[in-house]
Recover the amino acids of this structure.
């Protein structure tokens, strides 16, 4: 078997062209050295200085392929060798590697068991297994254990090994990027929920302060409204308890629909709700407190979804409701003046 090894004057980027189908299917060594790796196959560069860990038994399965990769001085690779599974796990506990190679020896070093132990420890480094086994059964067991590639040492070249190493490195990068993105998304949603609750609390404080000022200056507000919405954040207000549960539930459904549909399709429903509030003698203060309690309840129920859109749309809804409410009371007052 003739195998060409990458030399110091021949960087990996010079290997271009389509990946042979024989390499993609069975890694035929007779054609691996005759074709170059495609740009699509190598979608991302390897680290500028590779730090590799080779785990092998007495027969050193796959050792020369990995050593050939390290011999390419253009990569500046450093190879560390462990001869036992326990030594491998100890090294991974204290050190970080760009990739791990395991030479499978059924009687001395079981790659499946070692892979399961490595993955169970939380290590996500690229992991490639070199073996002499039947790939139809052995590769499936390795994939289930968490191996990135299971390669028959009799059917690979250094180029193929580098190709698989590159793909495995990309997988690890994608996993870490996805994890960072998910964590960033979670933190953003938490900030949005905190901001929404803080805004609702500030609006509730404004209403309470306004009510106190009105109660202190006149008797326009009834004694039943004197303690409205003075409970701490997150608790249901007294004003909400004074309203029928059916009305509160109906307003909650209206808020949900408004967030999705907007005002264009709900103009009739908002006008009817305002007429109902006027007929029931619900003040603007009570209507606003009902709005804040309903929206805060909906914000808590959104879980991992964004609350910013909900709060902004709900503010537009209560603005339109207040306009209809003011017009309703103005018309009611005008009708009373005409009768007088």
């Amino acid at each position: 078997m003739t195998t060409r090894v990458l030399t110091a004057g021949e960087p990996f980027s010079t290997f271009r062209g389509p990946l042979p189908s024989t390499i993609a299917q069975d890694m035929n060594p007779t054609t691996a050295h005759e074709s170059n790796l495609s740009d699509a196959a190598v979608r991302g560069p390897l680290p500028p200085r590779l730090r590799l860990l080779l785990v092998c038994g007495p027969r050193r399965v796959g050792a020369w392929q990995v050593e050939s990769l390290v011999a390419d001085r253009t990569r500046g690779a450093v190879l560390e060798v462990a001869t036992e599974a326990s030594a491998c796990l100890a090294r991974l506990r204290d050190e970080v590697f760009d990739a791990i190679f395991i030479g499978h020896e059924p009687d001395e070093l079981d790659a499946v068991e070692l892979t399961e132990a490595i993955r169970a420890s939380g290590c996500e480094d690229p992991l490639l297994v070199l073996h002499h086994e039947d790939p139809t059964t052995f590769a499936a067991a390795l994939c289930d254990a968490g191996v990135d590639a299971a390669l028959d040492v009799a059917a690979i070249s250094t180029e193929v090994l580098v190709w698989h190493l590159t793909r495995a490195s990309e997988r690890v990068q994608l996993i870490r990027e996805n994890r960072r993105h998910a964590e960033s998304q979670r933190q953003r949603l938490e900030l949005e929920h905190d901001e929404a609750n803080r805004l609702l609390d500030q609006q509730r404080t404004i209403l309470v302060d306004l009510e106190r000022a009105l109660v202190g200056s006149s008797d326009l507000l009834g004694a039943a409204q004197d303690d409205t919405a003075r409970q701490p954040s997150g608790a249901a207000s007294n004003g909400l308890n004074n309203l029928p549960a059916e009305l509160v539930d109906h307003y909650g459904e209206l808020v949900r629909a408004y967030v999705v549909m907007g005002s264009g399709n709900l103009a009739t429903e908002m006008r009817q709700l305002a007429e109902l509030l006027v007929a029931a003698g619900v003040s603007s203060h009570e209507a606003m407190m009902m709005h804040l309690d309903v929206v805060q309840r909906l914000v808590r129920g959104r879980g991992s979804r964004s609350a910013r859109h909900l709060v902004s749309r709900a503010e537009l809804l209560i603005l339109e409701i207040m306009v209809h409410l003011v017009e309703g009371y103005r018309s009611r007052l005008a009708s009373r003046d005409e009768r007088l």
Q: What stands out?
A: The first helix runs from residue 21 to 25. The longest strand covers residues 51-55.
